[in-house]
Amino acid sequence: MVVFVSVRPGGIAAIATAVAAAAAATAYALKKNRVEETLYGTEIDEEPPIPPEPPANEHPVLRILVTYVVEPLGILKRFIYLALLFSPVILLAPIVFFGKRRTYMRRGVKICGERAGALWWFDLLVAQMERAGPTFVKLGQWAGSRHDLFPDELCARFSKLHSSNKPHSMKHTRRVIERVFNRQFEEVFTEFDTTPLGIGAVGQVYRGKLRKESFDVEDMPTDVAIKVLHPKVHKTIRRDLEIMRIFAAVINALPGMQWVSLPEEVSIFSDLMLSQLNLRHEALNLERFRHNFKDSGGVISFPKPFMPFCTTDLLIEQHIDAVPLHFFIDYGSEAYDRRIAALGLNAFLKMLLLDNFTHADLHTGNIMVRFYKPSEGGVIRRTLKRIVRRVDPDAVARDAPRTANDSVVDGILATTKDEDAWNAELEDLDEQGYCPELIFLDAGLVSELSTTNRANFIDLFAALTSFDGHRAGSLMIDRCRTPQLVVDADGFIAKIERIINNLRGETFSLSKMQIGEVLGEVLSAVREHHVKMEPDFVNTVLSCVILEGIGRRLDPDLDLFRSSIPILLSLGCRLSIGDAESSHLMGMAKVWLYAEARSLLASFTTSRAVVDAFVRYGWISE
């Protein structure tokens, strides 16, 4: 989870390269007529032939009773429970106007934060939401990313929300597995750890080994992770969403609340929640990511789902032994930190710019690291690989034969309680020639730019690349959902213009830029002036801030702009005049010219890395 500080000028520059350019990526993605709708010849919406759940009684009278009596009573019961739970929050709301304000400095300017009473009330709200169940936990986590709607201090607390769910029974897990596989539990697994690896708001994860002789399936993973939804979670969440829709409509009718567009926000959140209630969506996302990264040389991986038996309630996927990224964040590794940071940045930019299909839940818990050893060649070849690997971690991995060794992961994990032993182990692996590989998990949340946002972002991109802050601010107002409700439009444009003007001399090195603070200032201006942002934009901003947080810890000197040059150029090759107006292409041309000039001046010591990156994204041939 990400905690936003507040915000200041200095980092929307990196977003200008990543966020705005994402719009251009959409032009290519849409041009392909949704080729991604099929993967390996299988229709996205096609469900596998699995045994259905026990049929419900279809008698029309019973159906009417369930629809018009049982379900409304269930919603009423849930409403009474939530009303009692949140009544202290409502009754104590006036306390937000009491107490001393917290003050802090930002770029030499004194900033007034929330009052002490408001901070106490925020803590109470978050505690009650945690008790309210999975819908409200997810709602809080989602709200934690909406700095354009809520105060920074509240978003920081929301982002730390976690589920307090108790594990559901093994009996339920067995029942789901036996129904899906249509055979006894013991016929499915040779081993099954009944202690969950993790318990989330909507489900829990186990580890097991499939009984391979029971299945006539090629290339089937045997060591698997098993995700099972909690019982009755569908019913609880659907009732909560119905209650939210009613309250959103009531609040939206209050004076001054129209700019928030609560009914639309609830609709967006509902789509997010309902997509997480179908684990087959996550399996399809994993397949699409695997397809998008099939030419990465294996340095970026996603677990392989066992598609014939992935359903609404059950996800079976390959279990990969790897080291959680947070150990590298906590302990560091002189041998591998920079290479891991570069791999992560390249993967993110590819998702964002080239694929228009971005993992929307990037945090250190969803990123793992394992190690492989490229096959040995001649002495000269090995020496060259070692030199190039230092400056570009995946250049030598592409299409290279490799040997994996899971015992390496076990050896690293054995040192996680001793920092000296940790560093010694990694230095030894580096001496032996091992290279890092990133594993991305939990693909339930993804983001794609819509058709409308494509045009909006391309226009904004042109304004940003020409450092036209006035036009950028005007576009943000003109293209927002409710431009008629914006407060002091001229003041908002002036703030955006000041931020962009401060970017002219900025570097894109993370050590000299605070992306989170810059974006925080932009979103604070958005909130203050009631400029209703599209969720697609906010989600992309959030992903960039998470990337910055991880990248800064691993490699403070990571250069976002230089890393994005080859991808931007590769994207440009895919776009045609028919996909975007000439003015948009001219804006991209300006960025490319500036980027190449900057790269030429700044990359004498690592020019090989740039060349290899250009090769990797198809801009030049080997």
What's the pLDDT, averaged over the residues? Answer: 73
* First-to-last CA distance: 40 Å
Beta-strand fraction estimate = 5-15%
Backbone CA Rg: 25 Å
In the predicted model, the low-confidence regions spanning at least 5 consecutive residues are 1-57, 391-403, 604-608, 618-622
Describe the structure in your own words.
Among the domains are: 12-33 and 449-616, no CATH class; 320-446, no CATH class. Helices cover 53% and strands 12% of the residues. It has helices at residues 12-31, 60-91, 116-132, 134-143, 152-158, 170-181, 185-188, 233-252, 262-276, 279-292, 325-331, 337-355, 379-391, 406-413, 419-431, 451-465, 469-478, 489-501, 515-528, 535-554, 560-574, 582-602, 607-616; strands spanning 38-39, 42-43, 101-106, 109-115, 189-199, 203-210, 223-229, 300-301, 314-318, 323-324, 358-359, 367-374, 402-404, 435-440, 446-447. Strands 8, 10, 12, 13 and 14 form a 5-stranded mixed β-sheet that branches. The longest helix has 32 residues, at 60-91. It is globular and about 65 Å long.
Q: Could you give a quick summary of the protein structure above?
A:
With 622 residues, the protein is an alpha+beta fold. It contains 23 helices and 15 strands.
Secondary structure layout:
Layout: H1 12-31, E1 38-39, E2 42-43, H2 60-91, E3 101-106, E4 109-115, H3 116-132, H4 134-143, H5 152-158, H6 170-181, H7 185-188, E5 189-199, E6 203-210, E7 223-229, H8 233-252, H9 262-276, H10 279-292, E8 300-301, E9 314-318, E10 323-324, H11 325-331, H12 337-355, E11 358-359, E12 367-374, H13 379-391, E13 402-404, H14 406-413, H15 419-431, E14 435-440, E15 446-447, H16 451-465, H17 469-478, H18 489-501, H19 515-528, H20 535-554, H21 560-574, H22 582-602, H23 607-616
Parallel strand pairs: 8-14
Antiparallel strand pairs: 1-2, 3-4, 5-6, 6-7, 7-9, 10-12, 11-15, 12-13, 12-14
